[in-house]
Design a protein that fits this description.
144 residues; alpha/beta; D-tyrosyl-trna(Tyr) Deacylase, Chain: A; two-stranded antiparallel sheet; 3 helices; globular
Length: 144
């Protein structure tokens, strides 16, 4: 599993010209699911994301989690996180899970993240051609 966390002041997903999801202050989570990933991986990632202290406290230090600030969460599936461009000029996605494996894990990730964070989780649409916009706050971007 590969996750790119971006601390945002806002983010949105548009599909076919229609806005699917929009959040304010919180986390945009780009989620890549690989062929070796399991539900145990989901538990670890979601606990880590919910508790990760990357929001500023009153002293300006990264000391608060998305839970602490009552932040919003947006999860977008992104199989291209598994793109391997070591050879040639066309990335290989052989390590990305196929939809029949990835969709149930993606849905479980959203469910577990909502439980662990105590916050609603908005999403993009698995497999759709999405336009994702964001204002990265900081900028703060964390790779897990």
């Amino acid at each position: 599993m590969k996750v790119v966390l971006q601390r945002v002041s806002e983010a949105a997903v548009v599909i076919d010209g229609r806005e699917k999801s929009r959040i304010g202050l919180g986390l945009l989570i780009l989620l890549g699911i690989g062929t070796e990933d399991t539900e145990a991986d989901i538990e670890w990632f979601c606990k880590k994301i919910a508790a990760l202290r990357i929001f500023s406290d009153d002293a300006g230090l990264m000391n608060r989690s998305v839970q602490d600030i009552g932040g919003e969460l947006l999860v977008v599936s992104q199989f291209t996180l598994y793109g391997n461009a070591k050879k040639g000029n066309r990335p290989s996605f052989i390590d990305a899970a196929r939809p029949e494996q990835a969709i149930p894990l993606y849905e479980k990730f959203v469910e577990v993240l909502a439980r662990e964070s105590g916050r609603p989780v908005l999403t993009g649409e698995f497999g759709a051609d999405m336009k994702v916009s964001l204002v990265n706050d900081g900028p703060v971007t964390i790779l897990l």
